[in-house]
Amino acid sequence: MSARQETGTATAHRVVVLGAGYAGMAAAVQLAARVKGREGVRVTVVNAQERFTERMRLHMTATGQRTAELSIPELLEGTGAQFVRGWVTAVDADAKTVRIDDDRVLPYDTLVYGLGGVADTSAVPGAQDHAYTLSSGQDAELLADRLARLGSGTVVVAGSGLTGIESAAEIAERHPHLSVVLLGRQEPGVAMNPKAKAYLHAALGRLGVRVRAGVEVVKVLPDAVELAGGESMAADAVLWTSGTRVSPLAAAAGLAVDGHGRIVTDAALRSVSHPEVYAIGDAAAIRQGYGVMHGTCQGGMPTGVHAALSIDRVLRGRQPKPFRFGYYHTPVSLGRGDAVVQFTRPDDSPRRICLTGRMAVRYKETVTASPWPTYGRMKKMPASGAFWPRGGRFTRVREAK
Fold first, then answer.
1. Rounded distance, CA 163 to CA 165, Å?
2. Mean pLDDT per segment of 10 residues, for the chain of length 401 residues?
């Protein structure tokens, strides 16, 4: 058989989706459902493991809590999409091939690049060797094992963004015998309105989390962290949540990337240098009227769906439509019994409205649990996944004069 797969008498158009995170799964399920039964299209999903990683629950996994076993192959059953388990080790954008586990080569006609970000432990000496991360379920389980073996001591959470906040709260609640310190350049909840930010700080205080803002970790040691200015802080475990980085595979493949290594896309989410490559989720530098999108589940899934819609339109001989997305909320869990939800404008700036306490807990859990049933609905009704806030005037990209 030739390099191109034959399906019946027609040559199949091979669509390969790299990564089965929130964005990759949205792209794979949406496209597979739309082309199901169509002889000329074949969809293949490549992921390092069969279990779907609920990144929004990794702070729970890190404290020893059990989460659902969600199987990627089981979800894809009935869609016609093929699942390939393996690590993507190289992409050849000119030859249109993907290398898996160094020993398998998978050709494509259209590539959906959804290899998301991981914790950036490369910028600070010692972080890669001595700090824990929440880059995967396995990483979270390693931290859970360490915390379970600590009878006392200090846990330093480096990074005061949303992941750091949720992790510090969860650790403090599940391990009250440990001292939890949250370190960061900015104060937690800096992007929230005053009411939401005050609630967040009060909740961290109730849990016993010690917050230190305006500090920077410059080195991680086996039993301490060093701060800019020379101060040293003892640490029995360090969780690194300060910044993310994307896979270098895109840049190595010759795809046009930005300063963070993300694939630069056009309005339809195609690579500006290789239009047969679509970039989604954390792997993409997607410009909207308010600037370049930052990685979240709320924005990642729509990018995956839109890429699928664009590919389907092109396969039907039509032009893809521009992608537009506006943010609408920032839900933050503060342990299992508390939370705060900051509602936002499409550019992610805070509105005056927020939820706190039990109502916020219910809202946050609804959001966290929503992706998997959403994929299930898309299998039967693809159009059900194509609704999200477009952002109005906030997302219009004005042409330069």
1. 6
2. 43 96 98 92 97 97 96 96 97 98 96 95 96 97 98 97 98 98 97 98 98 97 97 98 93 96 97 98 96 91 98 97 97 98 97 98 97 96 92 74 37
